């Protein structure tokens, strides 16, 4: 058998010995045994920092799942104020049957969230998903025909239309949708996804919101939405912020996505290295949650062991350097010819200053003819 103790050896010749961990190992039979004591520092008693991080993230995920069972899609996880505001609204949406507008950038996970809200608030109600940009009035009628027939045949029937990219949907289709909502009100419910941003009139309440809470559509930002649908969606709106504004949520979101893919048998990786988490946090995520989920899918497929390192992340993420995007955007509006001209004139002015304005000497130092120098100076003045 074995045993472990932390002991302080006695002082030897006035010299103190640092306390140490000692392993006692007993070898042999009970009647004839030898006990060996080995002192030192044992690494297996020191928790791996990556494992500690993974445990902490899993504890957060467990708390999130336990507290928000009704709305627990991966995209709603997080600890940021934006995530808490969103979950507060979603808890209300999941508890009542009403028209709902989801507003967020492309790739924000709105479709999965909206589907989960429908399943929770009206589990026995039929759901018709509509790809808004592809619709015209005729095609919309054809798509909704089963639900329309059901509503027409029975006054007890109910149905929900979930339309994506409402702000990109042709206005004639929006007009027809508005007419159907009016004809079968309140039995036909609308859940709409749109990138047009609503206006926040005041800070959200700390307590769960009501139907007449703080979010209303701003007329200036609803271009592309039919006025009647603006009125419908103003009753209840949910804002999903870009991932770049939810930096504190990224480790939890990434861990939740990794857990889901590991459980589905897509790879052996169970956690991230600290360097990998740092890279995920630094990246700006222009594609939002969908891009993050795709990155986790790539990483778990690339990682051969339990931990995902930076080298397993997509190239765009592991090679990203903060500030490069801003620098690149500054250069997009500068012509190459203009940049070269400015650079040349800076050098010419430096040389002219060094030669006290002697143009012939300046031309010699620059390795060009005096006529060419004069022409460049003249062009610059022009």
Relevant CATH superfamily of the largest domain: P-loop containing nucleotide triphosphate hydrolases
| Main sheet makeup | 5 strands, parallel
Count of distinct structural domains: 4
CATH topology of the largest domain: Rossmann fold
Proportion of beta-strand residues: 15-25%
- Across the major sheet, the strand order is 5-6-7-4-10
Mean pLDDT: 83
CATH architecture tag of the largest domain = 3-Layer(aba) Sandwich
Strand/helix succession: EEEHHEHEHEHEEEHEHEHHEHHHHH
Number of H- or I-type helical stretches: 14
Helix content: 40-55%
How many angstroms does the end-to-end distance come to?
Answer: 93 Å
Shape descriptor: flat
Radius of gyration: 33 Å
The CATH class assignment of the largest domain is: Alpha Beta
Stretches where pLDDT falls below 50 for ≥5 residues? 198-223
Secondary structure class reads: alpha/beta
The total strand number stands at 12
């Amino acid at each position: 058998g074995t045993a472990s103790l932390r002991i302080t050896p006695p002082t030897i010749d006035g010299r103190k010995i640092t306390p140490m961990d000692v392993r006692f190992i007993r070898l042999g039979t009970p009647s004839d045994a030898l006990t060996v004591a080995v002192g030192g520092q044992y690494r297996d008693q020191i928790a791996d920092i990556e494992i500690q991080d993974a445990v902490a993230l899993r504890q957060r995920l467990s708390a999130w799942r336990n507290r928000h069972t009704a709305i627990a899609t991966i995209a709603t996880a997080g600890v940021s104020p934006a995530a808490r505001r969103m979950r507060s609204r979603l808890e209300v949406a999941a508890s009542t049957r009403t028209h709902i507008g989801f507003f967020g950038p492309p790739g924000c996970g709105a479709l999965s969230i909206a589907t989960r809200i429908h399943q929770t608030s009206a589990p026995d109600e039929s759901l018709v998903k509509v790809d808004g940009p592809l619709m015209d009035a005729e095609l919309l009628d054809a798509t909704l025909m089963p639900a329309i027939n059901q509503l027409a045949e029975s006054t007890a029937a109910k149905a929900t239309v979930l339309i994506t990219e409402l702000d990109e949907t042709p206005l004639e289709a929006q007009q027809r949708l508005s007419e159907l909502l009016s004809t079968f009100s309140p039995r036909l419910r609308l859940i709409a996804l749109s990138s047009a941003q609503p206006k926040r009139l005041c800070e959200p309440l700390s307590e769960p919101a009501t139907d007449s809470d703080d979010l209303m559509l701003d007329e200036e930002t609803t271009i592309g939405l039919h006025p009647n649908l603006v009125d419908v969606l103003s009753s209840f709106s949910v804002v999903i912020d870009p991932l770049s504004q939810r930096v504190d949520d990224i480790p939890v979101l990434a861990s939740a996505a990794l857990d889901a893919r590991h459980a589905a048998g897509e790879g052996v990786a169970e956690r991230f290295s600290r360097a990998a988490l740092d890279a995920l946090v630094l990246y700006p995520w222009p594609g939002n949650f969908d891009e993050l989920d795709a990155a986790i899918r790539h990483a778990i497929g690339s990682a051969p062991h339990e931990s995902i390192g930076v080298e397993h992340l997509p190239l765009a993420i592991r090679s990203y350097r903060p500030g490069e995007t801003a620098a690149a955007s500054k250069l997009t509006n500068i012509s190459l010819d203009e940049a070269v001209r400015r650079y040349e004139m800076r050098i010419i002015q430096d040389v002219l200053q060094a030669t006290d304005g002697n143009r012939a000497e300046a031309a010699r130092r620059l390795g060009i003819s005096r006529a060419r120098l004069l022409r460049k100076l003249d062009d610059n003045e022009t």
